[in-house]
Amino acid sequence: MKKIFAAATFLAALSVQAQKHVYEDLLVLYVDEKYEKCMEKALTYTENDATKKDALPFLYVSMCNYEMSKLEKYAVDYPKAGRDALKWAEKYRKKDKDKEFFNNYEDYWASLNTMAGETGENLIDDPKGLSKAKANFDAMTGYYPENPGPWLMLAIVQYKSNLAKEGDLSVAAFDKAIAAAGDIKTLPKDQQKMLKNALIRYADLLVSKGDRSKARKYAEIGKDAFMEEPDFKGLWESL
Questions:
Q1: Is the CB of residue 55 less than 8 Å from the CB of residue 19?
Q2: Which pTM value belongs to this model?
Q3: Cβ distance 69 to 82 under 8 Å?
Q4: Domain holding 236: CATH number?
Q5: How many angstroms from the chain centroid is the CA of residue 219?
Q6: Is 15 helix (H, G, I), strand (E, B) or coil?
Q7: Structure letter (DSSP) for residue 72
Q8: How many domains does the chain have?
Q9: Structural domain containing residue 27
Q10: Across the chain, what does the average pLDDT equal?
Q11: For the segment 6-36, what is each residue's pLDDT rounded down to a tens digit?
Q12: How distant, in Å, are the alpha carbons of 36, 54, 140, 220 from that of 64?
C-alpha cells in the first residue's frame, strides 16, 4: 500500500511546475524503507540554497521521522523521532501554504494525526504532561489548520494551563475551522474521532466552570454526527 501511495504522489508531483525538483531519489529511499538515509538526504536539500525553498524535502524528513518513531531499532539514536515528525510537518506546511502537494498525502496526515492526537490526549489529564500535550496540539494546528479538533484540544490545554487569552484565541480558530469544514460526517475518520473527543472534553470543562449552556451549544455541533456513540450520547444526556 505504501509503495502504491508513494508512486501516486510521485506522479502527481511530476505535474507540478512550481517546484523545480521532483526528488525521485527521496521517494526511492522512502519506499525501500531506508528511512535514516532518506532523512539525511532530505535534510541536505533543506539546507541547500538551490532547494531550501522546496516543500517536499521537509515533508520527507517528517515522514521518515514518523516511520522511525514506530521502529524499536531507531529508539536509541532517534528518541524524539515522533516529536520531530510533527516539527518537520509544520516546517513543510509553511513551505506549501497553497497545498500544492498536501492533499496527495492524505494517508500520511491521517496517520500523523492519530499518533499526535492519541499522544496528546494521554497527557492532557496529567498536570505534568500539559506542556507536551500543548506542543502536540499546537503542532497539529500548524501543519493542518483546517482540521477543527486540534484547535479545541489546544484550547483545553491552554485553559488548564491558565492561559485564558490563548485559549480564547484557539476556540475562535476552532469556530472558524468547524464552520469551513462543512458536514462533519464527510471529514476523515481520524478527524471525526478527535473532533468528537474534543467536543466531549470541552463540554466537560465548561460544565466544571458552571457554563452548562455553552457546553450544550458546543456539544450540539456534534449531535448529528456522533449521537450513536455511547460516550457522546452520555455527554448529551447529561447536559
A1: yes
A2: 0.90
A3: yes
A4: 1.25.40
A5: 22
A6: coil
A7: G
A8: 2
A9: 1-100
A10: 93
A11: 554 554 444 444 456 789 999 999 999 999 9
A12: 7, 17, 17, 39
